[in-house]
């Protein structure tokens, strides 16, 4: 008997409307993936997001107090963000709507 672990894959079957399948296939092609790979990756990402959203955040009392203290401080501007927000939006620049 070898020491290698035997890989087990399990099939998943689902019924989808034609429109859903069309958009999944289009997105998979745009990513250069097979339908199976695309759907698996999307499902895994969604599952990980749900699991991570339900995990408790644990920290020491000191860490929590530092967190609360930081939140209690007055807000400070971030110069880079202030600069970006001062720029006109692309649709506000001269000639942006003209072709």
In short:
By secondary structure, this protein is an all-alpha fold. It is built from 4 helices and no strands. Helix 1 packs across helix 2.
Sequence-ordered SSE layout with sheet pairings:
Elements: H1 18-31, H2 35-54, H3 61-72, H4 79-86
GO molecular function, one term: DNA binding
Pfam families: TacA1 (PF08681)
Keywords: DNA-binding, Repressor, Toxin-antitoxin system, Transcription, Transcription regulation
Distance between the termini: 71 Å
Number of helices: 4
Instruction: Give the ordered list of helices and strands.
Output: HHHH
Silhouette: flat
CA gyration radius, whole angstroms: 25 Å
Helix content: 40-55%
- Count of the separate structural domains: 1
Strand content: under 5%
Oligomerization category of the chains in this entry: single chain
Reported for the largest beta sheet, the result is:
none
The stretches of 5 or more residues where confidence is low (pLDDT under 50) are none
Q: What structural category characterises the helix and strand content?
A: mainly alpha
Mean pLDDT reading: 91
Find the count of extended strands (DSSP E, 2+ residues): 0
Organism: Pleomorphomonas carboxyditropha
InterPro entries: Ribbon_hlx_hlx, TacA_1-like
Keywords: DNA-binding, Repressor, Toxin-antitoxin system, Transcription, Transcription regulation
Protein name: CopG family transcriptional regulator
